[in-house]
Amino acid sequence: MGEDMGEKGNRFMPGKKSAHVLFLIDQLCVAGGAERAILQTIRLLPKDRFRSTLITFKLDEKIELFRSLPCQSYVLPLRRTYDWNSLRVAQKIRRFIRGEGVDIVHTFHETSDLWGGLVSRVKDAPALVSSRRDMGILRTTKHRVAYRLMRSSFDLVLTVSDEVRRYCIEADGLAPHKVATLYNGVELEYLTRSNGGRSLREQFGFESSAPVVLTVANISKVKGIDVLIKVAARVAHEIPDVLFVIVGANVDGEYFKTIEVQIVELGMQRNVRLVGQTENVASFLKMADVFFLPSRSEGFSNALIEAMGCGLPCVATDVGGNSEAIRDGVSGFIVENENAESAADRILKLLREPGLARTMAAAGKCTVSERFTTKIMIDQLTGHYNHLLAARAKKNAAAT
After folding, report:
1. Which of 194, 316, 353, 399 is the most buried (most CB within 10 A)?
2. Could you give the CA distance from residue 138 to residue 388 in angstroms, rounded to a whole number?
3. Which of 220, 292, 301 is nearest to 253 (CA)?
């Protein structure tokens, strides 16, 4: 729960070994990849070395994921970026940074990125880290201009894939040595513990023998759900009892209506199921036979590597970091964006050739265990933090 900013926190004491990290994110209102990543990071950071605080400008406590946050947190309502209230919010954050001995400010999303650069410029300034998680799809013109103007403010920019890294260097004019790829991590222990796939089939009335093609994505145009419906129609023509199951929240009402109309027009009412948002994603993954990611744009998909970690053969579009996770033809299939026919062919191949599906699934699971675990992610992140803290200490010592 967010607290009053005026409440006294656990102040950072000089000489303490733990460093204070302030995480700043625009809002916690959708249980998306960035929101999950920031909470996962806070939860897994070594508590003997790092102390975390979270500030957000908006919080939806109706969403289960946000009802119990893993550290001291504050909600500072911010409706507009530039007005008198925004100045008061900026002053509160500045006072917090100075008064609570913040060593690192780590920002997520556009407003927090730009505000973090402005408000953290105080005496003995903390190191400023920005997490970039997409290919700029949410940026407006003012964001694009501001990112270029403020590029020198960031001590480190962490990107979720090499493709996002390339984009940020080119679009924002960042110095390459200040930009590093930090892949998302999967908690394999959680995936291993999760079960209940059989009961889910019964709960949703899925036939026990029907092959299931699953996607995990919010219902929005960028996630390519309309392409998935076209793919479903092609696959269902060959395998009439196939089920395409979509796990995700309705975040765009108008687009959702077009999807409902498309399902009816293509006669896919029996073959496509929209089950909404759930915290039980792993059980859905274990229920499925194939995972399909039809996104039009991605930074690096948590859902994709979770599916690989569950031992699912995967088909994904060639956007963002998808091809950095899947080796085409070895640990899954990469298909051209918007190409419903190609995606349908690959899905049909996996459904018809169980031996190939098992081989690709095993290769994908091995890839996750070797490259995309939370331990690897946290070890790399703490390494970056330690480097920044050492540089900051050296700089402050030289200034005295």
Report:
1. 316
2. 28
3. 220
User: pTM to 2 decimals?
Assistant: 0.90
The tens digit of pLDDT for each residue in 216-263 reads 999 999 999 999 999 999 999 999 999 999 999 998 999 999 999 999
Task: Please classify residue 246 by burial: count the beta carbons closer than 10 Å to its beta carbon, then call 0-12 exposed, 13-18 middle and 19+ buried.
Answer: buried
The angle formed by the CA atoms of residues 393, 395 and 400, to the nearest 5 degrees, is: 95
Sign, CA dihedral 206-30-41-298, equals positive
Task: Provide the 10 A C-beta neighbour count for residue 353.
Answer: 13
Sheet holding 127-132, edge to edge: 72-75, 50-56, 19-25, 104-108, 127-132, 156-159, 179-181
Q: Which burial class, exposed, middle or buried, applies to 194 when counting CB atoms under 10 A from its CB (0-12, 13-18, 19+)?
A: middle
The domains of the chain, with CATH numbers, are 19-185+374-399 (3.40.50.2000), 188-371 (3.40.50.2000)
Share of the chain above pLDDT 70, in %: 92
Q: Please report which confidence band the pLDDT of residue 11 belongs to, taking 50, 70 and 90 as the band edges.
A: very low
Query: What is the pLDDT confidence band of residue 1, given thresholds at 50, 70 and 90?
Result: very low
In whole numbers, what is the pLDDT of the chain averaged over residues? 90
pLDDT at res. 5: 56
Backbone torsions φ then ψ of 226, nearest 5 degrees: -65, -35
Can you say whether the dihedral through the CA atoms of 53, 58, 62, 63 is positive or negative? negative
